[in-house]
Amino acid sequence: MMDKKVYIESYGCQMNVSDSEVVAGILAKQGYTPVDRPENADLVLLNTCSIRDKAEQTVLNRIDGLQHLKRKNRDLKLGVLGCMAERMREELLEKKQVVDLVVGPDAYRSLPGLLEEVGSGQKAVNVLLSREETYGELEPVRLGSNGITAFVTIMRGCDNMCAFCVVPFTRGRERSRDPRTIVEECRNLVEQGYREVTLLGQNVDSYRWNVDSRGDVKDPDQPVTDFADLLDQVARVSPLLRVRYSTSHPKDMTDKVLEVMARHPNICDYIHLPVQSGSSAVLERMNRGYTRAWYLDRIAAIRRILPQAAISTDIITGFCGETEEDHQQTLSLMEEVGYDMAYMFKYSERPKTLAARKYPDDVPDDVKGRRLQEVIDVQNKQSLARMQRYVGREQEVLIEGVSRRSAEHLFGRNSQNAAVIVPRTMPDGHDLRPGDLVRVTVSGATSGSLKAEPLAIVHRREPAPEPVGA
Ligand code: 5AD
Ligand code: SF4
User: Does the Cβ of 316 fall within 6 Å of ligand 1?
Assistant: First the structure.
């Protein structure tokens, strides 16, 4: 087989990063090796995001920016994968002459055939969505990996129909991956020296395997597995493997999941629980399936069962019909919860969604922007306050790599997912290295990271494995 080179660029969520690794796995069987510059590739793939208009504009500009490479290399092929492929197939093929290949999130197994078509000078497309595809048994090729932390997809699609969200249209119906393949993938990762997995799904709390859409058991010889069961199984793979997950949904998050987290010290004390708005009226229009009071009850459950846990969230400002009073309720909810971190966005109308069909996008852009800034200001204060609580305390940090700012410092995270910067050299003269689990004392905090002094290595990988992937 001829040795060919593929360059893959991922936009949007962690799921896309994980999907790109599945794609790299499929292409590896076709003789493709990953490269880290488009100039060196025979095939350039953009794995794209449709969540907000800005995300799409970024990729459309990137496509134009890659045009010159095709003039230099006549054989170079350019493909668009992921959510934009699904949502904008026609526009891409009609308006972007440079695009040879358009493949949606459920169609990656057909890549070998599609690449053959492309090789013979045609354009190739597959954007079929599936009710079954989980890429369950496929072996991903880790791209740009630090060799320590990895993403593992546990389910695909989303059945929630939040009014603002394009994901149900681009990623299709919800389906859960066979837990045996998930556990197997995590085992392999540990053997290769990995020390942390993040289990990914659009709504992990509705993970349910071995039941059909009517709720009937599929295979009577296999247990029905929910997310709490899966989390328990993955935590048992190895005490050395840290386990994280994303994303929870407030309407579905159970105490059973929190109790599994409390039982396993290697499941990290961190929960991402998107609230979107603090106003029950807005939540209703968003079709989120919970009220402010319900959400605060879930926060109370986390504080009760996992008192050490950090909580982060997603917030949208300026959703259809959002009044000043609604906005004030978002600010007051933020004060009440005290988030460790938040991703904050201006509402961006997405074609075909419930909101686009039903409600006018009636909050003026400058008002959306001002409200966003107020939300960001509250969060910055809270992030700093939450980070300062660690100062003077001992923490365990998994070292992931070298700090971006200084070669003399390493970078890692504590269980609560806070970034921690530690000096490379311990007081006894020994050097720390990526993969070490280190006990530290936190000496300083900003809203974005902690500074810490290393005390002792709790666990070290021996021998240090070579980082895998490109
Ligand atoms: N406009 C703005 N933000 C959005 N999100 C999802 N859809 C939109 C939209 N149309 C945000 C939500 C979600 C996160 C991944 O992106 O907060 O939780
Ligand atoms: Fe973007 Fe959502 Fe698609 Fe992820 S699932 S790539 S966030 S649109």
Answer: yes
